[in-house]
């Protein structure tokens, strides 16, 4: 019975994760990237799909990672390729997608090391001094966003440097700012939508 | 293993907290209850009816009515048939 529940949870999380990431990717492509490519693309200044990474891993835990990885590779290869945003060989596409997928997880483990722990992830130790991240508090989610954006931009910069893809430091800054801005815009837009359409009147 | 629906509810709660923090809505849930009771009664409404329908105590209703009156959302006046009874109506 427990394994059936686990499988059901995994499927629900996977479908939600895949759809939410793909949806945000399409929104990003259509509404944001068209205004950025004119000056030469070197990392988006408002990468909204990062919100899907942060929110799904924070709320659903590691069960979201496989679907997030598949969504990342699929969207970059199919949609990004269509718009000329994916010039990477398959190996590098898989590598960068993997780093992008696990950046939130790494950030959460780094924060756990500092004492901030989240209940949806298995951590090596829980002590009485642990400060639990409250998933109902948007400030905690924003803190995870900032940490994960730092991990994401740094890991991709190092990967691009080592693989001789790019060594432009502007990309690091644009990735960092873009992930934070994109996530904030998504969260606040969702909040406004909730207020506008779903609040009981 | 966490529950999927519970996690979604937590996420919605987080979004609602943003609403509250940025004061996207100006009335509290109790104030909304009182306001909608008056709104539902079409034209005018007495305080006993608001107390009955909103499920709030009489003193809370009085406090809320005073605030709504200060915000220029409602007006209160004495009933002509019963001088002890106050009648409220919407101003908006």
Number of strands of chain A: 2
* Strand arrangement in the largest pleated sheet of chain B: 1-3-2
Beta content of chain B: 5-15%
| Major sheet of chain A | 2 strands, parallel
Q: Return the string of H and E elements of chain A.
A: HHHHEEHH
Q: For the residues shown, what is the average pLDDT of chain A?
A: 86
Query: Which regions of chain A are unreliable across 5 or more consecutive residues at pLDDT < 50?
Result: none
**Largest interface chains and counts:** A-B, 29 and 21 residues
**By helix and strand content of chain A, what is the structural category?**
mainly alpha
Q: Please state the oligomeric state of the protein chains shown.
A: heterodimer
CATH class of the domain at 28-90 in chain B: Mainly Alpha
Our estimate of the beta-strand percent of chain A is under 5%
Quick summary of this structure?
The complex is a heterodimer of chains A (201) and B (92). With 201 residues, chain A is mainly alpha-helical.
Question: What do you see in this structure?
Answer:
The complex is a heterodimer of chains A (201) and B (92). Chain A has helices at 2-36, 49-60, 65-82, 90-113, 138-162, 169-198, and strands at 116-117, 131-132. With 201 residues, chain A is an all-alpha fold. A two-stranded parallel sheet of chain A has the order 1-2. In chain A, helix 1 (2-36) packs parallel to helix 3, helix 4 packs across helix 5 (138-162) and helix 5 (138-162) runs antiparallel to helix 6 (169-198). The N and C termini of chain A lie far apart (41 Å). By secondary structure, chain B is an alpha+beta fold. Chain B has a domain at 28-90: Orthogonal Bundle (Arc Repressor Mutant, subunit A). Chain B has 4 helices and 3 strands; from the N terminus they run ααβααββ. In chain B, helix 2 packs across helix 3.
């Amino acid at each position: 019975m427990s394994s059936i529940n686990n499988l059901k949870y995994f499927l629900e999380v996977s479908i939600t994760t895949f759809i939410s990431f793909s949806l945000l990717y399409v929104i990003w492509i259509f509404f944001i990237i068209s205004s950025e490519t004119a000056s030469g693309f070197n990392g988006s200044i408002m990468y909204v799909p990062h919100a899907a990474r942060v929110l799904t891993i924070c709320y659903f835990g590691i069960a979201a990672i496989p679907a997030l990885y598949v969504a990342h590779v699929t969207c970059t290869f199919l949609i990004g390729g269509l718009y000329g945003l994916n010039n990477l060989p398959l190996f590098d596409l898989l590598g960068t997608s993997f780093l992008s997928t696990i950046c939130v997880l790494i950030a959460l483990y780094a924060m756990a090391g500092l004492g901030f722990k989240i209940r949806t992830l298995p951590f090596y130790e829980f002590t009485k001094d642990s400060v639990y991240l409250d998933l109902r508090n948007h400030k905690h989610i924003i803190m995870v966003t900032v940490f994960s954006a730092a991990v994401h931009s740094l890991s991709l910069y190092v990967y691009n440097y080592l693989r001789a893809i790019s060594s432009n430091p502007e990309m690091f800054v644009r990735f960092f700012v873009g992930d934070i801005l994109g996530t904030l815009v998504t969260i606040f837009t969702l909040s406004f939508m909730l207020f506008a359409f779903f609040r009981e009147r | 293993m966490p529950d999927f629906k519970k996690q979604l509810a937590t996420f919605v709660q987080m979004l609602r907290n943003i609403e509250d923090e940025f004061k996207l809505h100006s009335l509290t849930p109790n104030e909304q209850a009182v306001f909608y009771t008056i709104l539902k009664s079409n034209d005018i409404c007495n305080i006993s009816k608001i107390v009955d329908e909103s499920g709030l105590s009489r003193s809370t209703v009085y406090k809320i009515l005073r605030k709504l009156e200060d915000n220029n959302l409602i007006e209160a006046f004495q009933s002509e048939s019963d001088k002890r009874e106050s009648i409220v109506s919407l101003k908006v």
